Amino acid sequence: MSVINKMVAPTYDVLEITTVATIVAIICLTPFVVASWHSTLGNVNFRTFSVWGSLLYLGAISTATAFVMWNRGVQLLNAASLGLFFLFQPIVGTLLGWLLLGEQITWFFILGSLLIAGSIWYSIRFS
């Protein structure tokens, strides 16, 4: 996706690229959701505010904002350099879970973070 984004960046706006990518994802993934609806979402009460609020947050704030920012970053930097920042996602997600939700930081997280940081350092240093 980052390579395609970089190729069409001179022609299309970041929001257009993100919108088209989202529409393609919806078209491709909807059959799988419909096929497993009863086993996965059959017991969810979609009439509650907490469900709609969660969907709105995950869709509009968390996902859409992140994709727009990512696609803008791809336009400003080369895809190879930007790809290194993608590795920070699990670290940021876990730290936000710890900060906002009180989740525990384990030794596996610390080890994984060190491995991620080491791989980024290695890629920058020896590329």
TrEMBL record:
InterPro entries for the chain: Diverse_Substrate_Transporter (IPR051258), EamA_dom (IPR000620), EmrE-like (IPR037185)
GO annotations of cellular component type: plasma membrane
Keywords of this entry: Cell membrane, Membrane, Transmembrane, Transmembrane helix
EamA domain: residues covered: 3-122
Location in or out of the cell: Cell membrane
UniProt superkingdom: Bacteria
Transmembrane segment boundaries: 12-37, 49-70, 82-101, 107-124
Membrane topology recorded in Swiss-Prot or TrEMBL: Multi-pass membrane protein
PANTHER family reported in the protein's UniProt record: MEMBRANE PROTEIN, OS03G0707200 PROTEIN-RELATED
Family: Belongs to the EamA transporter family.
The protein, known as: DMT superfamily drug metabolite transporter
Organism: Limosilactobacillus frumenti DSM 13145
